[in-house]
Amino acid sequence: MAKSSQIALDAVDRRILRALQRDGRLSIVALAEEVGLSPTPCQRRVKRLEEAGVIEGYTARVSAARIGLPLQAFVQVRLESHGEELAERFHKALAALPEVRAAYTLSGETDYLLQVLAPDMEAFGTFATRRLLRLPGVKETRTSFVLATLKPPGEVPV
Known about the structure:
This protein is α+β, with helices and mostly antiparallel strands and 158 residues long. It has two domains: 11-51, Winged helix-like DNA-binding domain superfamily/Winged helix DNA-binding domain (Arc Repressor Mutant, subunit A, Orthogonal Bundle), CATH 1.10.10; 65-145, Alpha-Beta Plaits. The protein has helices at 11-22, 28-35, 39-51, 84-95, 121-130, and strands spanning 71-79, 100-105, 112-118, 138-145. It has a four-stranded antiparallel β-sheet with strand order 2-3-1-4. A hairpin with a 6-residue loop joins strand 2 (100-105) and strand 3 (112-118). The two termini are 20 Å apart. The model has no long low-confidence stretch (mean pLDDT 95).
């Protein structure tokens, strides 16, 4: 099954996904108990959800601020042109920037939206002027700094 195609989820699948989004470290036994299954069928369902690409992986949520990256910015990027070769060069260069936590291609006036983390304003300024603005094809950037996080990225509603 293609990972981009939608699969049918029943109520038990949805309970499994909600539980794993809250705590990806649950053992199969604990997960099975929480969703009302025995361990073997629960394990089969989890494996099916993983193989179908519904569960993309397991990670730890790390506090950027607690490890010295309290400054968060969203940067809108416009490219000089929309040629395929330039876009590929931009994507490759962008992938090499560890400061960029997430990147999205957009419709509308802005070509890309980047989520960037930095230790402070000076470091962000250095990143923006010496690295980001020098990426292939960057015509213009606009930056907004996060003042407070009202709702952090969370669970996918299932």
